[in-house]
Structure formats: C-alpha cells, structure tokens
Amino acid sequence: MKDFSGRIAVVTGAGSGIGRAIACQLAAEGCSLAICDTREDDMIETARRVEAVATQGAKITYFVADVADAERMLAFRDETGRVHKTDHVHLLFNNAGIGGGGSFVNTPVDQWERTFRVCWNGVYNGTRAFLPFLLKADQAHLINVSSVNGFWASLGPDVPHTAYSAAKFAVKGFTEALINDFRLNAPHVKVSLVMPGHIGTNISLHSIQEFSSTPTLSPEMQRAGEAFRDHGMPPEQAAQIILDGVREERWRILVGSDAVALDRAVRADPEAAYGFSFSDLVSSSRDGGPIQ
Prior knowledge:
globular, Rossmann fold, 7-stranded parallel sheet, alpha/beta
C-alpha cells in the first residue's frame, strides 16, 4: 500500500502523541480516519488539526473508547462502519498505551492489571474488533505499536518495569505470529510491529494522571512528565518513520536511534542485558519513564 489517498484508517490513542501525528499525516495524503481515545477534548483537538491539513475529501470521525474494554471497541467498529458508510478499513493502528505497574511485587494489583490491559488487551481488542473490516478490504495493513521494552524489559537495574514490559512483549509475540497466520489465511493483509524508543509524547503525564490519588499533579510530577515529553523524538518524526515502514511493508519498524542501538546491543549480548554495565551503555539514550 504505497498510497494512502482514498483509504480508511483506524487509529487508537489518537488524542495526542504518535497517534495524533499519524492521523494528521494520513489525512494530508487524503486518507479518511476513525480515531478513538479516552479523552474527548484531546480528540476534538486532533480532529481540528486533521481538518486543517486534510486533502481529497478526507473525513475524520472520533469515538470515546477505552481500548481495554472489548465491548466498547466493538461499538467503535460498528460506529465506524455506520458513519463512514463502509464494511471495511484499510489500515488499523493499535497505538494506545499507558505506563505504570512497575513492580509485580509492590505495585497495587489494580494498577498493574490496568497497565497490562491497556497495553496488551487494547491491541488484542482492537485487532479482534476490526479484523472483519480488514479482511473485507482489497488491501489492508495492521500496525501494532510495541516498544523497545517489548524486547528489553527494563528501564535499568534500579527500576522495576514489569506490567508495561510484559504487555509490550505480548504485543511483539502476537504481531510476529500474525505474519505467518495472515500469509496463510489472509494474504492481502500485511502486519507491522512498531518499536519506538524515547518519543516526546504525553504518555508519562497521562500515566501519572491515570494513577494519581489527587486531581492535580504535584509540581515535581508535572515537571517529570513534561521533561519526558520535551526531550524525546518529535511524534511527527516518529509518525513519518512508521508510515514509511508501512509503505515498504516492513514487519519490524524500529523508531529512533536509541531503539536501533538498544536492539543491536541486546542481540549482541542477551545474557548481559539486565546487568548494571549494560544499562550504562544505554542510559544516555533515554530520560526515564516508559520508552514510548
């Protein structure tokens, strides 16, 4: 699928960050969009930006949905079919994610499971809901966003990072398994696994807000979230890398020089990947927090 004009794309987690950037770039190429997120105000802003750059009659619709809720994702699919007057979509970007649930030992169970459900079940629910629409397209492409934490389950030896990492490993395994499954049973549907390094998004701020016990964040938490957002690769650059990978039908898309370097280092010496010396090699390529 070299040309996105006239196509229909579904993007989860499109209220900000990579999802918003993907939506804007697709619309600028004439692709219509159905987006979802949990924050309606953020989606309204995405819709405003999309409409400002859309070409060739590209249409955008949005739907409030938590990707962890399978029934809500089915409702999103049905609404997409109704408002776009279609029984198919060409592109599905399972992009929504959240950070948290660092320790399997000490983190509250509800926080751990919430993180896992959004980051893993969200991908499963999105794929399960929209698979019939992908199958009915003449050409289709499924894009699942994992993370470098999908092949390196760590933020360093001093920081537990289990829920997010376990979920992103699940996304990686699921997507790789679909390569052969689709080749055998739906050869017109392609699949890509996206593994970003540190992208400057609001995932850290949103994650802190999700699990905060107070309605407003402390100045320290606010600064930490803003620092993560302001010091990573711009989401627009990440979106361009992802869309280029889709055009090239690459199943494995690393995003960022830090992701490329970390992938190379893990592959070169997997036994050392969780030691202190290994972490020293990669610490300069991230600022902490979930690397997405």
